Amino acid sequence: MLTVGDKLPSFDLLAVDSDSELAAQPDQAFKRVNQDSFPDKWKVLFFWPKDFTFVCPTEIRGYGDLLDAFNERDTQLIGASTDGEFVHLAWRRDHQDLKGLSFPWLADIKHELAGALGILDRREGVALRATFIVDPANLIRHVSVNDHSVGRNPQETLRLLDALQSDELCPCNWHKGEPTIRF
Fold first, then answer.
1. Which of 23, 58, 177, 182 has a Cα-to-Cα distance from 31 of 20 to 30 A?
2. Can 170 be counted among the known catalytic residues?
3. What does the alpha-carbon distance between residue 179 and residue 127 come to, in Å, rounded to a whole number?
4. Angstrom distance (rounded) from CA 138 to CA 150
5. Could you tell me if 57 and 98 are in contact, meaning their C-beta atoms sit under 8 angstroms apart?
């Protein structure tokens, strides 16, 4: 698995676009996204195992609820799974909690990005529940992986992003605006 200090692998994937719910034609719902699609921005890339599951929509909604906070930090939120773009689109349109979300979901159906990141579950062949915080130079600055049965805390991802963007020494449980460690 790639880790802190590694470069985000090159990728070029179809994504369900942020306005896909409003698209009159399915072919208007998708766009290509790659590692350089969001220049000069931080990225929070989070993978979930499968669409149409139970824990995943709670996380996706949780991240979506913090979209304004990520945007304020000049950070692009990107969701992903190893499901295809039409499955993503159907789930977004079908699941009440996922309607209206406005960040791209990558369709890594060939497991290219998940494989390059090293986050494929060896038994099930789907992405692990992994989160990457990536800086504007496409360097991975944070990685976490949860068991399939345990959802993440998007607030913690935001806290970690704040700490990384502070470029300071941050103590345990530090939050934006609190003193950092000076020596």
1. 58
2. no
3. 37
4. 27
5. yes
Q: Bridge partners of 89?
A: none
The dihedrals phi and psi of 130, each to the nearest 5 degrees, come to: -115, 145
Question: How far, in Å, CA of 37 to CA of 35, rounded?
Answer: 6
From the candidates 56, 89, 133, 160, give the one annotated as an active-site residue. 56
Query: Which one, of 86, 79, 90, 88, lies nearest residue 152 by Cα?
Result: 79
* Local structure of residue 10 (DSSP, 8 states): P
Question: Helix, strand, coil % (nearest 5) of the chain?
Answer: 30, 25, 45
Decide if 127 contacts 120 (C-beta within 8 A).
yes
CA distance 64 to 46: 12
CA-based nearest residue to 88, from 156, 179, 164, 23: 23
pLDDT in tens, the chain (183 residues): 999 999 999 999 999 975 545 555 666 788 999 999 999 999 999 999 999 999 998 999 999 999 999 999 999 999 999 999 988 888 888 888 888 788 999 999 999 999 999 999 999 999 999 999 999 999 999 999 999 999 999 999 999 999 999 999 999 999 999 999 998
